[in-house]
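Hi D.,

Good news: the full-assembly prediction came through. Inputs first.
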Amino acid sequence: MLKQTEGSHAVAEAVALCRPEVICAYPISPQTHIVEGLGELVKSGQLQNCEFINVESEFAAMSVAIGASAGGARAYTSTASQGLLFMAEAVYNASGLGLPIVMTLANRAIGAPINIWNDHTDAMSVRDSGWIQLFAETNQEAADLHIQAFRLAEELSIPVMVCMDGFILTHAYERLDIPTQEQVDAYLPPYEPRQVLDPREPVSIGAMVGPEAFMEVRYLAHAKQLQALERIPQLAAEFRTIFGRDSGGLLHTYRCEDAETIVVALGSVLGTVKDTVDEMRDQGVKIGVLGLTSFRPFPLAGVREALQNAQRVVVLEKALAVGIGGIVSTNVRMALSGIHLHGYTVVGGLGGRAITRKALHHHLGLAIEDKLEPVSFLDLNHEVVERELAREREKRRSGPMAENILRDIGVVAAKIS
Amino acid sequence: MSAETRFGRMKDLPSTHLLGTGTAMCAGCGGLEALHEIYDVLGARSVFVNAAGCMTLLSVYPFTPFRGSWLYTSMASAPAGAQGVRDALDLLLARGALPPEEDLQVVTLTGDGAAYGMGLSATSSAIERGLDFLYICYDNEGYGNTGQQTSAATPHGARTATAVGGHVGWKKDLFAIWCAHRPAYAATVIGAEPLDLARKIEKAMKLKGPRLILALAPCPTGWGYEPRDTVEVGRLAVKSGVFPLKEYEDGRVTHTKPPHPRAPVKDYLRLQGRFAHLFEPKRDEATIAEIQAAVDRYWEGAG
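Then the structure:
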């Protein structure tokens, strides 16, 4: 059914249609509207047979989800940023135990300094934890990916994280197609756990394992992700037959035929990137876009196939691997082993800094001439950085960096331009 | 004895030995002693959610001493894990997939390291939510599994691997912390007093909601005494008044075995290597007197 709704609320409705049995709620911006929405749906009776638990921390949220999932219940939670870091131990445990929990990550920067705005640092911090990570480009896709996530998680018995850009998606209102219960029921069968704390057939879950078996258990997590590489496109195709639209899949190319330059990105920024590429195409530049929906598993073969005929690849990253540069680009390079093309990492959008077409035109223009630095930063104010470095050279007690920079640029509140 | 209990005398105690043997616990483990006694009363219709500690090593694939299921989530979040398991069981009950008579007691099993320290937030929150679970803490007054470092349960004066001159702080009062939450039930127990222990487990099982069983767990390895002396050390902990056996119910604390007369605390301290520096090479009268005074003050206040 078409309706004008907020991204968070659409996700809440989509999750509710999946009939979760335990929902662990803890507030942290920008995901809060999702659990609030689910709380309302439980209270109003629209979502029945569901325990909605207000917990004391994200660490508890994931721990309750682990207990519930091990007990045979379909479990869901949602978090962002520092919340994900606080639950990090349980995040690894959920995947290590092979429990099909679904979690929304409303992508947000990680402090310090404290920042509530969007980037991908949180998701990237647990990219190797064993969770599947799917990135939504639009709110429609965010809602749809949750329905696919429960199916994928439960088929493979591994947890799935659906990443959606904080504020840009979570707080945006637009017209979305909310599926019917019949459609979701046709797509998502009831949860059949692979392991369960069954009163009649007791098991131990999570006991210590030594060197004799640990590697195999850990490898199995990898093997399941490789299975997911097969299943994700199939589930997207099946989704299309029931719901009548394309959502999900591993990756998507846009105007890549004959492209000499291909921009790789994840999430909502793909819209801006595509607009920029359209404008460059109008000017005769042979440029295309590769959008990654699945970051874990990383579709090595698909990325290779999409990029192998290009001359250069520009990876636009909303996270910074401090001390080296790019995270996504490192992964892209693994896909390009033996293929020689120019690779550029452009880090942008950190802490909610707007990624504008103007800035993209500038960087992509340089890339096309192969004049771009291997690692560059979109709209970074180098002058301000230099001033702070100079201050630190001059004076031992130079004070808090963030405050110094805010004094230099003359604003005391978040500025988006 | 009151008609409320089926444990009138020692002969009434179950000798089922329900908890399997051959675990990796140390010889003479006071925590395991208490757990054996608790499990015999509790029965097999239980599911354990373990916090990291010595007793995480009870279940080592493919072995387990438990008759029922067992789950490890993480050291600091066992009560949250228990919440999820309880919720899942409630859903089964509501759906009719689990008959009420087959319902399980959800039990959190934790050492003092997690209970007094990093797990306190998860515990406090589970009590606040009214979680229907039994919370068993085997308190050996230090991080026993890693070699007896200081924990928030370490008593004043005790030597630990991280307090070689003796712990300068005082043991945190976990029982009082629980009581401040107004739980359904809270009790202290010790394996060396099995009748008192059995009656408390029996009572706890009749109640719903958050229930604490705080078991002092004499630890030959960490406390420095011969494994055969576990019962003796435990009895002296009670007789000296160092470890009051008590229970909380309906807002009231009752002492179930007040020591009359109290043995001097030095009799209890002397048995243990962790207090040896208070006696040898030079007697530390001041510290011994401080510990005695703290015990005396407690019992004066207890009326």
